[in-house]
Amino acid sequence: MHVTPNSSPPTDTFLWGVATSGYQSEGGYNGTGQPQNNWSQCESKGRVMQTGRATEFWTRYAEDFQTCRQMGLNAFRIGLEWARIQPTLHPSPSAPPPFDFAALDAYADRLASCIQNGLEPIVTLHHFTHPAWLGVNAWLAEETVDLFVEYVRTTVDRVNCQLIDRHQLPPIRWWITINEPNMLVSSSYLSGQFPGGGVRGSQAMLIAYDRLLTAHVRAYNCIHDLYRDRGWEAPYVSLNTYCNDLYWSEKVIWDLLSLPERGIKPAGVREYVRTQAQQFEADLRRADLPFRRDLPYQAGRFAHFISNFLGYRLFDLDFLQMYLNTLNKSPRPSFFDYVAIDYYDPFIAHVFRLPHFADFEFKSRNWRSWLMSGITSKWWDWRTLPEGLHFFCQYYSRDLGDRPILIAENGMAQRRKPDNSAISQRRDRLSRSEFLEMHVEQVRRLKREGVPVVGYLYWSLTDNYEWGSYTPRFGLFGIDYTTGTERRVEDAFGDRPSQTYARLIRESGF
To answer: What stretches of 315-465 show up as alpha helix (H) in DSSP?
Structure first.
């Protein structure tokens, strides 16, 4: 059974852009008198670095949009922060606080500036964070879904009306409801990298998935209903996932979202996902990607085998009943208009590295965590395998009904502490310019082969706050935090990646 999406992005234009998120770049969160989100306690107790002013995007947005235009970009992924839009000074209010329409209007101003600089806004409504008043474990509570949908309805309507009435601009076309639900769940309830209130385990992960997928489906319907009722041209709505070669960590999300359009009833879900997992593994083997099969890789392959073994056995539909009931009630059988993926290092076989104990970002809780930190890969250890980007785009487009593919994030980290006390090259000595050339070539390859890739967004425009730390550096423009937030064209190793990206866009021919 093939179902056409409710609206499909055009494939005759290509989006070249960058991706950002509000909490990581805006500045102005979790301080006194500022919006508080679920990272507030971690910041105040010193468990992570404080965000502070971040990159000051909230005040420097116009300059950044102009820079993007000068580079030849035509798209900008921007996040709206629920904690800023529905803030409170009380950590546990007796009722949901009112929406801050001044904040919504300020976001509309920034989106208008984005459009006026020739950039298509791709707007993310939830990027890992939520207001502190919901509690740390918001996605374990059923009521969060209703609150999220009301936030989506209010935000989308207000921002679009402001764009139309105040700025004489069209409504937003591209929406991402929830960023990387697979990373949010695993980082909160498996690795503990994100705030999770000490809750761990497969049951908590399944409950969180149940709420998040339910929230996405309802938000998807809410946005499409709103555009229909307002008489606006249908938008393109999806979520985005962090690419992972473990089926149970990522691809299963897209397959669960495809249940109605494929005619899969609840009784057939377990067998369906098992078959899909086997097909995915078979196609991955046939791709014969050029891995560097060293000792850490071999250990990682064993971890992949164990994770796959556990994945199917821990997949319990009893914890997904809210989601399945929502599918049954939905007026639409399709819940994503395009496939959005974030490609970094998606291979479980790369989870380990040769022991190294001099680059920890956070204090180890005990000797076991100290040991694991020493042998597990950090941001700057992520291996580069551009051929994997080709595989995921090609496979997902084919398996998910030839839907358009948006590469919503792709980036490479270097290590540089905010006080400049540790500036070190990657072990592979790869520059960001070389990384860009390798991955843009795969985009060209996909286009030559007719795969409907509609955009490539590099993460990120500038160095920013990377979930507890300023040390991982992903930016096309560097920032020396000891002197401010000025955008620097040249990095610490003499590379100028923003200029490389601009050249690659000019040379692309599309």
So the answer is: 321-329, 367-375, 386-399, 432-448
Whole-angstrom distance, CA of residue 176 vs CA of residue 239 = 5
> How far is it, in rounded angstroms, from Cα 80 to Cα 78?
7
pLDDT tens readout for residues 167-194: 999 999 999 999 999 999 999 999 899 9
Handedness of CA 234, 150, 407, 270 (dihedral sign): negative
CB 215 within 8 A of CB 148: yes
Q: Which amino acid is at 222?
A: C
Nearest to 217 by CA among 267, 253, 189: 253
| Backbone φ and ψ of 449, nearest 5° | -85, 0
Confidence of residue 197 (pLDDT cuts 50, 70, 90): confident
* pLDDT over 70 percentage in the chain: 95
Residue 64: closest CA among 230, 171, 56, 497: 56
Of 153, 131, 125, the C-alpha closest to 144 is 131
What predicted TM-score, i.e. pTM, was given to this entire model?
A: 0.96
Alpha helices in 342-491 (DSSP H): 367-375, 386-399, 432-448
Q: Report residue 280 as tokens.
A: 């995915």
CA distance 134 to 155: 18
Residue 461 near residue 68, CB atoms below 8 Å: yes
Pairing of strands 472-473, 236-242: unpaired
- 203: closest CA among 251, 266, 140? 140
Three-state SS for 68?
Answer: helix
| Residue that the structure tokens 């234009």 belong to | 13
Contact 36, 130 (CB under 8 A): no
- What is the tens place of the pLDDT at every residue in 200-255? 999 999 999 999 999 999 999 999 999 999 999 999 999 999 999 999 999 999 99
Q: What is the residue whose two structure tokens read 């985009």?
A: 443
Which H or E run contains 155?
Answer: helix 143-165
Q: What is the DSSP string of 185-203?
A: HHHHHTS--S--TT--SHH
Assess whether pLDDT exceeds 60 at residue 316.
yes
Question: Tokens in use for 246?
Answer: 């473990």
| 1: confidence class by pLDDT, cuts 50, 70, 90 | very low
Can you tell me the mean pLDDT for 314-324? Answer: 97
Element (DSSP H or E) covering residue 23? helix 22-25
Q: Is residue 75 scored above 60 in pLDDT?
A: yes
Q: Radius of gyration over alpha carbons of the chain, in Å?
A: 22
From residue 82, give the alpha-carbon distance in Å to each of 38, 178, 262, 280, 407. 11, 12, 33, 35, 24
